[in-house]
Amino acid sequence: MTFHPVVEYTPPIALIRPMCTFVNKETNRNSKRILDHAQKLSEISSQLNLIIQRFTF
Questions:
Q1: Residue 11: which residues within 8 A CB-CB, separation 6 or more?
Q2: How many CB atoms are closer than 10 A to CB 40?
Q3: What's the CA gap between 42 and 51, in Å, rounded?
Q4: What phi-psi label fits residue 9: left (phi over 0), alpha (psi between -120 and 50 degrees) or beta?
Q5: Cβ neighbours of residue 46 under 8 Å, at least 6 residues apart?
Q6: What pLDDT does 57 receive?
Q7: Is 14 helix (H, G, I), strand (E, B) or coil?
Q8: R_g over Cα of the chain
Q9: Alpha-carbon span 26 to 21, nearest angstrom
Q10: Where are the domains of the chain?
């Protein structure tokens, strides 16, 4: 049985920067999508509250 040492691969800076930029853009896009959904849910929630208030005496 031969032992293979684990060699850690570090990508060059030239690759790391674009990867970080891509991840940041995706994160920003996802954050915006989440905030948009939260806003919509908030609006739906307040509409539902108004409807519920009409039916409760």
A1: 19
A2: 10
A3: 14
A4: beta
A5: none
A6: 66
A7: helix
A8: 25
A9: 9
A10: 20-57
